[in-house]
From TrEMBL:
<feature type="transmembrane region" description="Helical">
    <location>
        <begin position="81"/>
        <end position="105"/>
    </location>
</feature>
<dbReference type="InterPro" id="IPR011990">
    <property type="entry name" value="TPR-like_helical_dom_sf"/>
</dbReference>
<dbReference type="InterPro" id="IPR036779">
    <property type="entry name" value="LysM_dom_sf"/>
</dbReference>
<keyword id="KW-0472">Membrane</keyword>
<dbReference type="InterPro" id="IPR005158">
    <property type="entry name" value="BTAD"/>
</dbReference>
<feature type="repeat" description="TPR">
    <location>
        <begin position="906"/>
        <end position="939"/>
    </location>
</feature>
<feature type="transmembrane region" description="Helical">
    <location>
        <begin position="37"/>
        <end position="61"/>
    </location>
</feature>
<dbReference type="GO" id="GO:0000160">
    <property type="term" value="P:phosphorelay signal transduction system"/>
</dbReference>
<keyword id="KW-0802">TPR repeat</keyword>
<feature type="compositionally biased region" description="Low complexity">
    <location>
        <begin position="352"/>
        <end position="362"/>
    </location>
</feature>
<protein>
    <recommendedName>
        <fullName>Bacterial transcriptional activator domain-containing protein</fullName>
    </recommendedName>
</protein>
<dbReference type="InterPro" id="IPR019734">
    <property type="entry name" value="TPR_rpt"/>
</dbReference>
<feature type="transmembrane region" description="Helical">
    <location>
        <begin position="126"/>
        <end position="145"/>
    </location>
</feature>
<feature type="domain" description="Bacterial transcriptional activator">
    <location>
        <begin position="841"/>
        <end position="987"/>
    </location>
</feature>
<keyword id="KW-1133">Transmembrane helix</keyword>
<dbReference type="InterPro" id="IPR018392">
    <property type="entry name" value="LysM"/>
</dbReference>
<dbReference type="Pfam" id="PF03704">
    <property type="entry name" value="BTAD"/>
</dbReference>
């Protein structure tokens, strides 16, 4: 792959260094090529057909005709015995060579990847490869052969250069498959014949001819080796700047090519296509009509292509043209005139991107003169944000449950610490940008595809990448794989499978392994998001650019892989960076100190996976993920190496990566210079945040996780660590209210149970539901809510700033002001929306009562403690917002209040039970525990205390009844071991009683 020079600091673009001096000369076939092809055909004919024929005629069948006996060991060894042994060896050598020929021919014709090694073949396979390459020199598929004829005489085994070439061999990411090129010649001939017939009816002196005379064209040449022509290289050669490839694209987009296909940004150009060039193009390969140097057929094709441009121009002038902003990647159906194509963002297409941009001076998101924004890197990464937010929620719930094992009334971590500073901004950005619905649809779509293929007894195709575009999911296949299972359909060509959002929404959860867990977001192009399948790349993927820019890409890739929702299990090895990222997913992420440790680890891993695949009878991990898949055996192992390896280490990594595609191992390697031996795909991150891969046709707005946001995200996870500072102070509730008679609030909202507001009139109209929901969100976040977080919660598909600001003003007017004139909805110094202390919820009161009973006045006064705990338990009327509509309050899925509230109620019940048992009031204790169990029925601590309180009544029958009730609730799982042990202690005969009752 061509190397690139990094853009200068001044921003002047520099293109890639060409493979050959300009202009590029396309290699023409010579008489020597014909001779090589003829000799290769004769050699293959002799070796594949002649050898077995000669053996059959001269020696015959060398093996014994009967079953072996002990008498054979006593027979004399004669010359014929030696001849028979040699004949068997020759037969085996012939069979091995024939297998090599078949393997190499299959790889050459498919044009995908390097041919697999035939065990023990060595030089035989190299000879077969060279002969097949020479024979197929004239076919379109010869371009895919690597190593090529230039490697004649090189050894296959133990040759580092050959290994690197093998690692580099791969079709371009968006290249059309080479086997399609074999039909291009026939299509061109047919097109030329049709054009000749139509020429009789054309006007030779019309506008088209005049246009031809002043226009330059370029005809795409067949690829040579790994070199696929690209718009970038054409622009570099003929326009002097590769970045001008967009001009060529604009001139040729949506125009029918000679083979019937069209140019799209998601594909590389194909051999035989014609490109109209800008007027200042220059170079020996250009054709300027009329041109006697090209054949009449080519002249006719260019003439027809020029007319397609005229038609497109006329169509655009009539108002029927396609606006450039509507061009999606890859090609897809355009929205209808009824506007019904506005489906939103199905698969993480940037929910945050549909929201308003950063706050601008003078906008409604400013309050009190404070202009502020959120990290756009997180807002613009919806899949990454959803993964991080989900992982953070799980970590916080884990911390809550672990803290529940502490002492009643004094346990740690009841209230997670409230983030501040950059951590708070990062959390808000995650809430704004996350698209959990897109992640869910992507996961269901991929697993549904795997289940559909398994039902048809078909293997998973190799997928290089996925595009998320305008609600649709497009998979880029390594090679055509036939018709996809319904509801999937073919995309713009045979190498794209497409699933519309409406079809994806009909998928349900299926019990199958995640088929493509190595997909990871790289960035966006126009309105489409690209996910690269790292484990499918047959070689190394290199990333060049400044160290800080590379680190931002590596951190983004690592964080998304560690927390994404479309994979089961995986191992992600970080080398040269990311030691602080491991808290994001300790079960997935691991950090190694150096490249030597990495190579040692991956050599062992590669051997183990090869052996496991062979033992299981699978060709690759993909065939092991369909049917009765073993989720753990075929999990991917992805290596992210930020430090540039030495040339020797790069060669060793290339050897390991040559077979990585089928083993489920992927490598992303950083390089300072852009020169990495063995790199299959090369990318560059610029200082402007652009991710470039010119030879793959990519120029993306990169998805990044800069150092500041990385530290903020890690801080969020560190604060939620269950093991963090176990001896630290108890976290107080974020908002304590005055629970005395003088502290009666002006506005009181009941959230624990059915939603009810006291002190305000019910708003009229459809906005009432929005105002209630906004107030609930603010009540659950007394620390303040960013306006963009509020907007993303109320309008998950996005909303404009004026609509959001209008709602905030209505909410402010509804809540009114305190007697001193202060608005009950204000803003803090950071610009976040906050509620006045006169606006209170029952959840605030519940937390304050428990805190005061266990850490305030109730500590020194038993009577006060009992009264406060009793008042708190009376407030519990059911689950949080019990009557909320199903289509609203979806932001609660990001909260941990659903875990906090049952634990808080259980703690209150346990504390009140202990209060009563101190005075031997067992019935009162049982009454308190039963009340708490209505809100926290799965809390094992409540059941244990209930058994102890029941035992205190001295009635064994009641304990047996409780045990039977517990057993019925536990179902097939049975009672937890600690509960059984407690019953054995309190009532040793309980098992017999339960069995008799059953």
């Amino acid at each position: 792959m061509a190397r690139r020079s990094t853009s200068s600091s001044t921003g002047s673009p520099t293109g890639p260094r060409n493979r050959t001096p300009q202009p590029v000369r396309v290699r023409r076939r010579t008489f020597g090529d014909f001779v090589k092809a003829f000799l290769a055909f004769i050699a293959l004919l002799v070796l594949v057909v002649g050898v077995p024929g000669a053996l059959a005629l001269t020696v015959g069948w060398p093996l014994p005709s009967g079953a072996p006996t002990l008498d054979w060991l006593r027979q004399e060894i004669t010359v014929q015995t030696f001849l028979n042994v040699l004949t068997v060896i020759v037969w085996l050598a012939w069979a091995q060579f024939t297998a090599c020929v078949l393997v190499e021919a299959k790889a050459a014709l498919s044009g995908v990847g390097l041919a697999g090694r035939v065990p023990g073949a060595g030089p035989s396979q190299l000879l077969a490869r060279q002969l097949v390459a020479a024979l197929l020199l004239f076919g379109a598929t010869a371009a895919s052969l690597t190593p090529g004829l230039s490697q004649l005489g090189q050894g296959l085994e133990g040759n580092n250069r050959g290994t690197v070439a093998a690692a580099q061999q791969t079709p371009g990411l968006f290249a059309q498959q080479q086997e399609q090129a074999s039909g291009t010649a026939a299509a061109l001939a047919e097109q030329a014949a049709q054009a000749a017939q139509a020429a009789a009816h054309a006007d030779p002196g019309g506008a088209s001819a005049a246009r031809d005379a002043g226009t330059k064209y370029y005809r795409i040449q067949p690829p040579e080796g790994r070199h696929h022509d690209s718009l970038w290289e054409i622009a570099q050669r003929h326009l002097g700047d590769g970045r001008r490839y967009k001009e060529i694209h604009e001139l040729n987009k949506d125009r029918v090519q000679p083979d019937g296909s069209r140019l799209s940004e998601a594909s590389l150009i194909r051999p035989g296509w014609i490109m109209e060039m800008p007027a200042d193009a220059r170079g020996g390969e250009l054709v300027e009509m009329p041109d006697a140097q090209v054949s009449p057929d080519v002249q006719q094709q260019i003439h027809d292509y020029a007319k397609s441009g005229d038609q497109g121009q006329d169509h655009a002038e009539e108002g029927g043209g396609t606006d450039a902003s509507q061009v999606a990647l890859p090609e897809q159906q355009r929205p209808g005139a009824d506007g019904g194509a506005d489906h939103g963002d199905a698969h993480g297409q940037g929910q945050g991107q549909q929201h308003e941009g950063p706050a601008q001076p003078g906008s409604g998101s400013e309050a009190g003169g404070h202009a502020f924004g959120l990290p756009e890197a997180l807002i613009g990464a919806p899949l990454l944000a959803a993964g991080l937010l989900g992982a953070l929620g799980r970590r916080r719930r884990q911390a809550l449950w672990q803290s529940a094992l502490g002492a009643v009334g004094g346990r740690r971590g009841m209230e997670p610490p409230t983030p501040t500073g950059d951590a708070q901004d990062a959390q808000d950005a995650l809430l704004v940008g996350a698209d959990p619905e897109g992640v869910r649809l992507l996961d269901r779509s991929l697993r549904g595809l795997a289940a559909g293929l398994a039902a048809e007894s078909r293997a998973l195709p190799v997928v290089y990448a996925a595009w998320l575009s305008n609600g649709d999911l497009h998979l880029q296949l390594a090679q055509p794989a036939g018709k996809p299972p319904a509801p999937w359909q073919l995309g713009q060509d045979q190498t794209f499978w497409m699933l519309a959002r409406a079809d994806a929404e009909r998928y349900e959860d299926v019990d199958t392994a995640a088929p493509y867990p190595g997909l990871v977001s790289l960035g966006t192009m126009d309105d489409s998001r690209l996910l690269l399948n790292l484990e499918a790349v047959p070689g190394l993927v290199s990333l060049s650019g400044r160290e800080a820019d590379r680190a931002a890409v590596f951190a983004s890739v690592a964080a998304e892989l560690a927390t994404n929702g479309w994979s089961d299990r995986m191992t992600i090895t970080l080398v040269g960076f990311g030691a602080d990222l491991t808290p994001l997913a300790p079960n997935r992420l691991r950090h190694l100190d150096g490249i030597e440790a990495l190579i040692e680890t991956m050599e062992a891993e590669t051997r183990q996976r090869r052996g496991a695949l062979g033992a299981a009878g699978h060709d690759s991990v993909l065939t092991g993920r369909t049917g009765p898949a073993q989720h753990t055996r075929w999990a991917p192992h992805l290596v992210l190496l930020a430090a540039q390896p030495s040339a020797e280490d790069a060669l060793r990594l290339a050897e390991l990566a040559a077979d990585a595609g089928r083993l489920g191992i992927g490598y992303l390697v950083g390089t300072e210079t852009g020169e990495l031996p063995g790199a299959a795909w090369e990318m560059e991150i610029t200082t402007e945040g652009r991710l470039l891969a010119p030879l793959l046709g990519l120029e993306l707005d990169a998805q990044l996780l800069p150092a500041v946001q990385q530290r903020a995200v890690v801080e969020l996870f560190a604060d939620a660590d269950p093991e963090r500072d176990p001896d630290g102070p108890v976290n107080a509730p974020p908002f304590l209210v005055d629970i005395s008679e003088q502290g009666r609030p002006a506005v009181y909202a009941r959230l624990v149970g059915p939603y009810e507001i006291i002190g305000l009139d019910t708003p009229d109209g459809e906005r009432s539901a929005l105002l209630h929901e906004a107030l609930a969100l603010l009540l659950l976040h007394r620390e303040g809510v960013h306006p963009r977080v509020l907007a993303s919660a109320l309008w998950p598909r996005g909303v404009t700033e004026d609509v959001r600001d209008a709602l905030v003003e209505r909410l402010r007017g509804w809540l009114g002001s305190d007697p001193d004139g202060t608005a009950r909805l204000g803003t803090d110094e950071s610009g976040r929306l906050t509620l006045a202390k006169s606006v209170v919820s029952d959840l605030d009161v519940l937390r304050s009562l428990y805190h005061e009973a266990t850490q305030g006045k109730g500590v020194d006064s038993r009577a006060v403690r009992g009264r406060l705990l009793t008042d708190a338990l009376v407030l519990v009327r059911g689950p949080l917002l019990a009557d909320r509509p199903e289509d609203r309050y979806r932001w609660l899925t990001h909260e941990i209040i659903d875990a906090q509230l049952p634990l808080l109620v259980a703690d209150i019940g346990l504390a009140l039970s202990a209060f009563h048992l101190e005075k031997d009031r067992a019935e009162k204790a049982i009454e308190a525990l039963d009340a708490a169990l209505r809100t926290a029925p799965s809390d094992e601590r409540l059941w244990h205390e209930l058994l102890r309180a029941t035992h205190a009544t001295g009635e064994p029958a009641r304990i047996r009844a409780r045990a039977a009730d517990l057993l019925a609730r536990s179902g097939a799982r049975g009672l937890p071991p600690r509960t059984e042990a407690l019953l054995d202690e309190l009532l040793p005969s309980w098992r017999d009683g339960v069995a008799a009752a059953g």
